[in-house]
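Troubleshooting entry. Yesterday's outputs looked truncated, so today I'm pasting the complete records for two proteins to confirm everything comes through intact. If either block looks cut off, that's the bug. Protein one:
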Amino acid sequence: MNQNKLVIREITIKDACNLLHFAKDILREDIYSFTSIEEFNYSEEEEKEWISNILKNKNNILLVVEQDGDLIGNISITQSLTSKSSHVSELSINVDKKYRNKGIGKMMMDIALKKVAECSDIKKIVLQVFCTNERAISLYKKFGFKEEGIFKQHIKFNDESYVDVCFMARWV
């Protein structure tokens, strides 16, 4: 991978179409997604509105990664909308399967967590991950996330198999 052409940047409304296609590609994998591809029916206008709403909050972070102009990853850290948990943000990260295990997730985490440290309102970051996703759990642990609980057989796949979901968090 030529990292000279790798760009990590904040998202813009113009990224809506590419982000929508990227999200659908990730959802088609099914093995890491909490949402099924059949349930993901957002239009480009709805995606633009979602991005716009994310960008309105100074404590939200939404970064994209491009390689040679193609969107290959994203990370979001979004603040809770309720007043009692407004000190908490939820993290979500995705990397195109062709680019995994190349340090892109680590780079996104580095940048995003530095930005979160600048947000005095955010005290805790939470995430959910399939307990079978050892690669992701290892990455999260390297950044100080700790397991806070497991929901047994929380996700059911079309083949009637189940997977546990691990809830992890770290304090900023």
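Protein two, checking that the full record survives here as well:
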Amino acid sequence: MIVEGKIFPYKKKITKLFELAGKILNEDFSNVNVSVNFVSENEIACLNAQFRGKDSVTDVLSFPNLQKSVSQNLTEFSDEIVDGSLFLGDIVICHKKAKSQAKEYGHSTNREICFLALHGLLHLLGYDHIDKQDEKLMQSTAEKILCQFGVNR
């Protein structure tokens, strides 16, 4: 998997987390590309207002490139491969919000960044939390991956 964007110093960690997620989810990420960027509170508030109609700072936003459901495998999107790469979409994380949430929840900023990045990736892969059943599936999937990655609560 290729992870690009403004995510220093977390790039290696997020890349490894996403690679583990691919293995656990039985997805082939060898030709997959994801953009992850850290932005300011102002930037994420503007994006949240523009794309979700919510005038507030949020922790993470995802912008999927594919109309993928959880039940679909990425191999079904071979027609979307451009120059040998399948672009899943963009993940935007507010670093300052992540730090404050980590403090609020009593765990490390590292754990919160991993959670938010993975949360964004799961959205790109078709997971959602609109209804209780979908939320339960998304949460249990995230916890399984984070536990195996070694960043438990």
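Both blocks look complete. Sanity check on protein two: The chain has a mean pLDDT of 94.
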